[in-house]
Structure formats: structure tokens, C-alpha cells
């Protein structure tokens, strides 16, 4: 999941003829589904659940839903919007009361194994999949089968203060973690900023997101193809890097208590040169004149890499899925097609960047935020998913504790990851 909020506002691009095409599912997404209820005179009612606080706004989703119903008068859609923190449990307890559900990437395996969502592998042709970023497809894939349609696209980037870097004598942001540390040391030594880097390393899912990115950039994997490799040397190196940056005073020690909005606040107040955060921070820090003191000074770059990886950044994307218990599965897929269609994603590109590669060449989409759009189409090639396992929830909870112990110095990275390796193995065997 993306953090809290994204770029706000709605684009006015798109037109009725495009939306009509999208509603019939004949433009950019498959017509394999929707052939029964979508064209039948028999009225059906769909219940859909979304989240409130991020990605496409509630207003945009409702507006598109109203347009879909206008174009498909026999299909009524009743959307519900809940906080992200409540979304997973609502889906689990709601069962077949929903037809369409918004799922976060780490839930796909669990929901597929539990029989909550339908396998829709035959609904999306290969030629259309090839135009979707692989990381977005991975977010709704389990055991090489597709269990939803990618919808929201988000990931973390490296944000930097252009003015601070210039004062320190740097004309470009760091491309690797080693370069970031080198620049951070100069920034600190010259008294430009006390703690150059700020991050969301509170014991929470936000921490797991950064751990996923950083371990992958060091050439490691927490779980690879179902195999638990937590205490792999590359992962130990990655956690040691994080812990040492705090000990050296290069990462703000309060990062151990920070979530996304905290990081945005610190960076926006001019108290950090670097930050790791979701897409939304670019708009918040660089354009919000009421809340940010660094407007016009914010740069955005690829999440740093190492000699083993150009970059690696966590997949914050989410997909739309049809529940296995839906009695109106064809109509539900048709609704999903409409929301995931290129015309919809172009129209609301300011809310969330598209899943479709080809839209990153569309001038209307690029115009919404040229620097971000042009960077995103490269960064999306380096998306990595959090562990794709049915027992992810339990694993994440244990991982948060273990890494926090390594970062606060109560345990070494090696011992923390050794213990996590054992706990994850036990969890997987009990599942």
C-alpha cells in the first residue's frame, strides 16, 4: 500500500465517446468477461469496496461509477469506502457480500488460497498484459495465475533537496546507497543539515516496505519463490547498512518512530536532504506553499541501488478483484474493466499514475507532472513485491519486530534475522 494520500485533483481529459468505448470493454481491456450480465436486460446490483485515503479519490471513483451505470443501465453499483486499515478485514468478514474488492499486493496469495477471489487468468490477453508494468501484474498474481486487474500504481522514490545538494557541491543525486552515505557525510560535516536522511522506519508495515526495497537492492530476498531466505548475507548487509546510518548520525534517529506523513513533514520543513517516501510527497513538499518550506527545491530520483542492482523499490500497487462468491461475476469484471481502462486512467492521472506503459508517452498524462511521470516509467521497471505468501500478515508482524531490534541496537542484524528465519519457517509450516 502507498502511504497516506497521493497527488490530488482530477484531470479533465477524456471524452464521452472514449468512455462509451471503455464501458463496453472493447477498447483496451479484454471482452472475455461481461458477455452475460453486461448485455442482459436483467438488472443486477454490484457491491464494491474501496479505500478512502489514497490513490483515486472517492469522488473520482464515484464519478466514474456513475458514468458506468449511465452507460450500463441494467447494472447498479453500490461502492463502499473504508480506511485502508479496515479494508482487509472487511473483505475477509464480508465474504460474498461484495462482488468487487480492492486488494493490496500482500493479500493476493492469502485471498487466493482462502478462495476469496476468483482466478481471472483467462480474462486478460497477452497483448494487453505486455502493456502493463510487470510489477503491477505481480501484485495480483499468485503461483503464475492472475487473481485481479492491476489498478493503482504507486511506489517509493528517493526525494532530495536540490538546494542543499548544491551547497554541498553535488550536481546530481546519489544513484547508489554508498553515494548517498558519502553525500550525507559531506552535508553533515558542512553543517548544512543535522540528519541528512529521514525514513519511515517505525515498527510498522512502512518499515517492511523499506526493508523489502533495500534488501533487494543489496541483492537479497526475504522470500524467493516460496523459499525463506531471510538470514541470507545480502539481507544482513542491508540491515547493517540501515542500522549503521543511524549510529553515524546520517539517518535521523527519530525515523524509528516515523511514518509517511512524519517524513513528509520533516523533509518539507527543510530538516532533511534525503527522504524515502511514496509518490504523494512530491506534490506535498514541492507545491504546497502553505505547509512546505522547500517549495521548488524538491528533486525526485530512482530509489538507490548497489553494484548488484541499479535500483529496487517496493510495489505499492493495488488491484481490483472479483470475489469467488459473487453471483454477478461477469458484470463485476465489466465494471473492473471500465475502472482499469486507459481512458479512465488517463482522465484521472493526477490522482494516480497509470498501470499502462503506453500512457507514459501520452502528452496529456505527461503534462500532469513531467518530472514524476518521466521518472516513474523507469522506476516501475524496478518494482519488487513484499513476500508473496499466504502467511504474509504473520510474517510482516514478526519482521517488524526483528528489524526494529536490529535498528535500535538491541540485537545484531545477524541474530535478529536468524531468529526471524526460524519464526518465518514455523509460521509457514503452521499455515
Automatic annotation (TrEMBL):
Q: Does the keyword Glycoprotein apply?
A: no
Can you name the source organism? Paenibacillus sepulcri
Q: What SUPFAM superfamilies does the database record attribute to this sequence?
A: Periplasmic binding protein-like II
Enumerate composition-biased segments (Low complexity). 15-38
Recorded family membership: Belongs to the bacterial solute-binding protein 1 family.
Q: Which domain of life is it from?
A: Bacteria
Q: Which PANTHER family match?
A: ABC TRANSPORTER PERIPLASMIC-BINDING PROTEIN YCJN-RELATED, ARABINOSE-BINDING PROTEIN-RELATED
Q: Which UniProt keywords are present, listed alphabetically? A: Signal, Transport
Does this UniProt record's set of keywords contain Zinc-finger?
Answer: no
What is the protein's given name?
Answer: Extracellular solute-binding protein
